Amino acid sequence: MDKDFRNVKNLNDWFLKNKGSHDINIVTYNNELGIELNSDKKENDIILRCPKELTIDDSLLNNYDKVIEKKIFGIKIILFLIQESKKENSFFKEYIKSLPVDLSHLPPYWDKETLEIINDTFFYDDLKKLKKQIQKCYKFLKEEKNKKIKYKAFKYFLLIVKSRCFNFGEKDKNNFIILPMIDLFNHSVEPNCKIIFDEEQKSYNVILTKDCKKGEPLTITYGIRLANNILLTYGFFPEEYRFLYLKDKDNQYEHISSLEGENLKILYDKVLKFKKPIEEYDEEIKNVTNENKKNAYSIMLDEKKQILEAVSNFKLK
């Protein structure tokens, strides 16, 4: 999800100039980027080709050992982007310049007033863990390899990579890769496009999964993920998969409806922290125009409803 559209035209020109091809238009929906089809197409038609040489993956930076790779998600891509962002003549200059400058829609950048809304939620616990992980990774990187990297740049590019990387690895192997132009496609649980790698052409292709008309919005799937994970990573809170899962004593995720013992007590503790009934938030939410606060209220109320329902069911048992 992008908030800075100034360099998308230059990105498109760079993409086409370097053997990329497509039949799409980049548009905006409510201040967000989106992709529409440029002409009528049939199912299985290729609507975009991204040559492998335009992609960014681990192979572009080989001077970091396996220890760091395992410790930090997508570290080679993060460091490569930081390195290239400082070069005036970088081949990937137009791609990097097209990245959103403003990441304030991502929860790690939310302001104090917004964070106050989710203060007593499990989502906030997850957010705090993510912030600590970023700080821990940065400290580890500085101690091990590079003392010149600034925290602000590291945090920015780490969150960029988390929200834009695709994984084309085998089942037990991660092969993180950034696919310029393809990373502009929005998410849907019922997408009309899919991505495949053409071994012969050495390109990542976007293919229609059904017949589509000119001007139709095009989407891919970011994977089957819980809504709170989507919000944490991409900065939007979808209606689908709003299920609350918690880790048990064995570090395994369980849906709250199956919790018992000490884990059940955690739910009761959360209920005791509820400051007021859910109904009293209705009027408050009507006046909210800020998108981050809307998302914060949505996840807070969604959690509370699920917790109250689960606790109620336990009492009935």
Structure description:
The protein is an alpha+beta fold. The chain has 2 domains: 8-220, set domain protein methyltransferase, domain 1 (Alpha-Beta Complex), CATH 3.90.1410; 243-316, no CATH class. Helices cover 41% and strands 15% of the residues. It contains 11 helices and 13 strands. It has helices spanning 8-17, 66-71, 75-85, 93-98, 112-117, 122-144, 151-164, 227-234, 261-273, 281-286, 291-316, and strands at 21-22, 24-29, 32-37, 46-51, 56-57, 166-167, 176-178, 186-187, 193-198, 203-208, 219-220, 245-247, 253-255. Strands 1-4-10-9 form a 4-stranded antiparallel sheet, with no helix packed on it. β9 and β10 (203-208) form a beta hairpin. α3 crosses α7 (151-164) and α9 (261-273) crosses α11 (291-316).
Number of domains: 2
Helix content: 40-55%
Under CATH at level 1, the class of the largest domain stands as: Alpha Beta
Strand proportion: 15-25%
Keywords:
single chain, 317 residues, alpha+beta, set domain protein methyltransferase, domain 1, 2 domains, 4-stranded antiparallel sheet, 3-stranded antiparallel sheet, 13 strands, 41% helix, 15% strand, globular
Write the layout of secondary structure elements.
Layout: H1 8-17, E1 21-22, E2 24-29, E3 32-37, E4 46-51, E5 56-57, H2 66-71, H3 75-85, H4 93-98, H5 112-117, H6 122-144, H7 151-164, E6 166-167, E7 176-178, E8 186-187, E9 193-198, E10 203-208, E11 219-220, H8 227-234, E12 245-247, E13 253-255, H9 261-273, H10 281-286, H11 291-316
Parallel strand pairs: 8-11
Antiparallel strand pairs: 1-4, 2-3, 4-10, 5-7, 6-7, 9-10, 12-13
